Write the structure tokens for this entry.
Amino acid sequence: MDQRDVMRGALKATGAVKKGAQLKFGAIAMVVFLIGLIVLGMFFPAGKAGASACEDTGPGTSDASAVTDTSTVQASGTLHQQQITYAKAIDAAAKKAGLPGRATLIALMTAMQESTLQNLTHGDADSVGLFQQRPSMGWGTKAQITDPKTGPTFAATSFFLGRGGNSGLVDIKGWEKLPLGDAAQKVQKSAHPELYAGHESAMRKLAQEAGINVERGGSTTGNTSSSGDAGSSETVTSENSCGVAQPTTPGGSAGGKFTDGKQTWKLNNPRSVAEAIAWAKAHSGAGSSSGWYQRCLAFTANVYGWSFSGVNYAIDHYKVVPASMRHDGDRHPPAGALMYWDTGHRAGHIAVYLGGGKVASNDILRPGYIDVVDAGLFETKWNAKYIGWTPPVFPRAG
């Protein structure tokens, strides 16, 4: 259909095309409107909507962790067969943690309520996986929680032992004596706590079909060494190393204090300030890998030993830091502080202050690489606006 066909159709629709009839005023307006649309379409063709259209391309743009999705992360077979497969994975995680069968039953009831015992890639807000755990709240990355092979075990271990500052079942005092649904609620903190208990009978039956003994004994405190949380002794390698292996022992040399001369804060990062600065310098310049393009927030989280920050954009990280820790516009941060800029893009930019007016930052000299540069370079080269600094705190990191 050409443009004349479009106009003719519009005229017919308005009743304007009649033998010997004159154009009505409304038809004229319609024709003018359509011509305008045609002209606009010729000069400003509409683009196709897609994920890339929503992606910020400003300097330093990044989520703090690699988040991927898959078209399917379900076990094979019918729904019931899948549920049995996931039930076995949950029980295996409980056994590895040294927990009794009661813990498995609580987890099964929880997963049935949260996801119908399915490894979902979606849910309320950013909730995913068997237990609908939220990456933004420190339960792990979306990829870790929903991975077809390891996700169910990862999620179940998190439910039992906790992760990213979130309490697990073993952290609930006297959980083994609580009603099953109440124990589940203590971990999940659901808006509908009454719903978990209703799955007990069905899950006992499913456990029997899966060969799971929900009456077996075990430790009520569990074997916390099987957890990847900050409280464990397990060595974790960051997924955001971009080609640079960076094993950290969460909580190993964590802590230390940070002061602006007036207030003092206690830190809980896996690396101390001194270790973080040394790590940043070692992975800058000639020691930098090439995978840091638009990943400023990922880099700062990794500097302090975290696998992910739990926040999507640098500018948002400034907002999740408590207001009492923000130093708006102050240009005298202590070494180790996090500095922020408004780049005119959604993401903004963040860098680690090394002292002496220098910061470690991605992209500023070489796209994708980390370099040590003057803190003022972002304003002169990117025309960015300095926002302020905060202590190196990561409220949502893991």
User: Anything to note?
Assistant: Residues 1-23, 37-72, 225-253 have pLDDT under 50 and may be disordered. The radius of gyration is 28 Å. Residues 163 and 258 are 25 Å apart (CA to CA). The longest helix spans residues 25-43.
